[in-house]
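User: I'm curious whether this sequence folds into something compact or stays loose and floppy. Could you predict its structure so I can see for myself?
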Amino acid sequence: MSVEVKVPVLPESVADATLVTWHKQPGEAVSRDENLVDLETDKVVLEVPAPADGVLAEIVRADGETVLAGDLIALIKTDGGASGESAEPAKSAASEAEAKEKRKVEAQLETPLSPAVRRLVKEHDLDPGDIEGTGPKGRVTKSDVLAFVERGESAQKPAQKTAQQAPSTPAPASTPAPAKAPIPPDSSGRLEQRVAMTRLRKRIAERLVEAQQTAAILTTFNEINMKPLMDLRKRYKDQFEKTHEVRLGFMSFFVKASVEALKRFPAVNASIDGTDIVYHGYYDIGIAVSTERGLMVPILRNCDQLSLAGIEKTIGEFAAKGREGTIGIDDLTGGTFSITNGGVFGSLISTPILNPPQSAILGMHKTMERAVVENSEIVARPMMYLALSYDHRIIDGKEAVSFLVTVKDLLEDPARLLLEV
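Assistant: Here's the prediction. I'll summarize afterward.
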């Protein structure tokens, strides 16, 4: 019998989606819940799992087509019924063997592998038990697998398996993918390539242009002496990690300081809705994350109720989801204020752009030792430039500057975060 594969219910506010990459082709065995195709929406990339074990009989909608929720995109032939009897025994056996191997691989880990990680493990013929996971609860992520392959630690296993095979039988898992055809030069010998913009990239572009066209964006700058924070982190990082099972970073301090400043200057936590100003009584902070598919801003909910450890754990989970491409629509929805850290890429100073409908965003930058004057003496201190971009329609310059000074004061004297002074 045949089982229909349909587009799942799309997230709220998402009208349609684009089929990006089919991971299976007609005639190939599939296992239940195995990812068949990636669906790209304006906000996130979704996976369409196989509803049953069997053989992919037909792909109804090809890569690049736009589909709606409920559209038929493929047919899977299962072993049941008359049509199932005609399925090739070899493919049925392959399907059963693949499902068994999948269960064996995942049984070796405390947490299951994501579809993206499973594909990489299979392609490179790896034993996931040999890979040290950096995700939550030691979960192996996509970046972990890629790093493992780059280090060359997987070289011996394919070589051993090839030696065990007959000389005329190549090892498919270790065969390198064919190189892409070179881009043909133009008449003058110069190269160029035209690539369609992804839906996510188009949506990012639309929102950035919207922010520039609808908001009166200004940016104010200040600098912070990072030495007190660095000394505090150095003193307690080992004990913190041992107690809370998460590393102590700087972002949690910036989130806490921002929440305290938002309480003192509510307009920075507000947004415009038509002709009304909406003052939010909660603090949902967006943390900008750079992923392979583009910039995303997952939301840390109710940050005023989170401890430093809680913030660090949530940020770690979002980072893992970003690497694996599993950030969901709920993770990106809402938010009253954002923080972006260009310093991880080496940025010394920049003007961050608003994330509508939010009215402000804090930009962190690279920490560098600079000469500063303290008590009439020139000393070297690790300094960071801070930037606050804000919507001047509802936030006055005095509020914006005062907000940034408050963040600076709190971080240069971290004890004030505990005392809320």
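Summary: The first helix runs from residue 81 to 85. DSSP finds twelve helices and 19 strands in the chain.
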